[in-house]
Design brief:
The chain is α/β, with parallel strands linked by helices. The protein is built from nine helices and 15 strands. A six-stranded mixed β-sheet has the order 1-2-6-3-7-14, sandwiched between helices. Helix 1 crosses helix 3 and helix 5 runs antiparallel to helix 6. It is elongated, with a radius of gyration of 23 Å. The two termini are 28 Å apart. The relative contact order is 0.19.
Length: 386
């Protein structure tokens, strides 16, 4: 049996794996599975279509339903172009902070969850504890749905899930949903002096981006001032764009991702329909000039929002563990909505501040990390008492 590692040792190991979403996470998954198996836990994997990425899940305690899930993701965002003061894939402690890519989002929670799961197995608990570590959260929470479905096939269904995204151990019981599309505008190249005889993919793509800007303005004007969300309306966004070959040629190609973060009163499906209708309108105009032109729109993600639960068991448990009385909602998405949609009570609660996520010199404070170990110890005590 391998040594029992401390949460800090686990964090150091997890951060050492550069699990950027564009790359495989299997080296990390292999190590975690070997560690958990060495402590008597049976692990299961859910692979993506390439076989180069996987989610991992396991069950500690009696083989009965009604347990608690600790849920984290394994992937991190890139460090390209960021000015780091130290190696981003080595945890460095300075001034009471643990610096490293993913320390905050969210390998700090992952380390605590792995530690707690091994402790649950070692101590023996009356109520089960399940651990799940997903793939591809950072590219739209695309790995969790298949993992959640597979978990229910291989393990007794738990009652609730704690998703450990950074909230400074505050309780988040609601977040926006969202949809995203990979868009490829196919133009027709001609010399720009006779641009009217061709179709510029960039100029046509700009029409959709302009529409998104106008939707943001309209949504802001109609926002509910009583909403707890910031901002209190659905937002559309394009973060990157590429296309074109030269300044004097109508662009043959233009690619970007368009996303919408939807307030609960505006379902994802409604915005997906509106986006699709606008794409179809623009494409009709393109084809009227050149039938070869068009738009390929591929759904990239559809993440359900998290809704506050009346007397929700997940929130009640976290309140007992943290002593927190308040709650909040956030505009970013998490896998919590996906757990809730699958029939679990769900809440978001984890170490660190979301403002540090994705940043150069990302960090998690030592105090937040130590608070997490104390919280996990309380959770283990409660699971033993059940």
């Amino acid at each position: 049996m391998p040594d029992v590692l401390s949460p800090r040792a686990l964090l150091d190991k997890l951060v050492s794996f550069p699990t950027v979403s564009r790359d495989s996470n299997l080296p990390l998954i292999d190590w975690v599975e070997e560690y958990l198996t060495g402590h008597g836990l049976t692990c299961h994997r859910d692979y993506d279509e390439t076989g180069q990425k996987a989610s991992l899940y396991t069950h500690a305690g009696p083989a009965v339903a009604g347990g608690v899930i600790l849920s984290g993701h394994t992937d991190v965002v890139p460090v390209d172009g960021q000015a780091w003061q130290s190696d981003p894939f080595t945890v460095v402690e300075r001034d009471g902070k643990l610096f490293g890519r993913g320390t905050c989002d969210m390998k700090g929670f992952d380390a605590l969850a792995i530690w707690a799961t091994v402790e649950a197995q070692r101590r023996g608990v009356a109520r089960p504890l399940q651990l799940c570590l997903s793939r591809d959260e950072e590219i739209g929470c695309v790995g969790a749905p298949a993992m959640i479905e597979a978990m229910q096939a291989h393990m007794p269904k738990a009652a609730l899930a704690i998703i450990g995204e950074p909230t400074e151990w505050g309780i988040v019981n609601g977040h926006k949903g969202g949809v995203g599309y990979d868009l490829h505008f196919h133009g027709y190249e001609v010399h720009s002096s006779i641009a009217y005889t061709g179709v510029s993919a960039i100029m046509e793509g700009a029409k959709l981006i302009d529409w998104a800007n106008r939707m943001n303005e309209a949504n802001a004007a109609a926002a509910d001032p009583a909403s707890d969300y910031d901002p209190p309306y659905t937002t559309l966004h394009v973060g990157m764009i590429e296309g074109g070959t030269a300044h004097n040629i109508t662009a043959k190609d233009c690619k970007f991702v368009l996303s919408a973060r939807c307030v609960p009163s505006e379902p994802n499906a409604d915005w997906a329909e509106r986006i699709s209708a606008e794409i179809a309108r623009i494409e009709t105009g393109m084809k009227a000039v050149r039938p070869e032109a068009g738009i390929t729109a591929l759904p990239r993600w559809d993440v359900p929002g998290l809704k506050a639960e009346e007397d929700g068991p997940a929130e009640a448990l976290v309140r007992r563990l943290t002593g927190e009385n308040g709650s909040s909602v956030v505009s970013y998405g998490t896998e919590a909505g996906q757990f809730q949609a699958a029939g679990y009570s769900a809440v978001v609660c984890g170490p660190g501040n979301i403002a540090q996520a994705h940043q150069p010199n990302e960090y998690l404070t030592v105090a937040q990390f130590e608070m997490g170990q104390a919280m996990m110890s309380k959770l283990l005590d409660q699971l033993q008492e059940h």
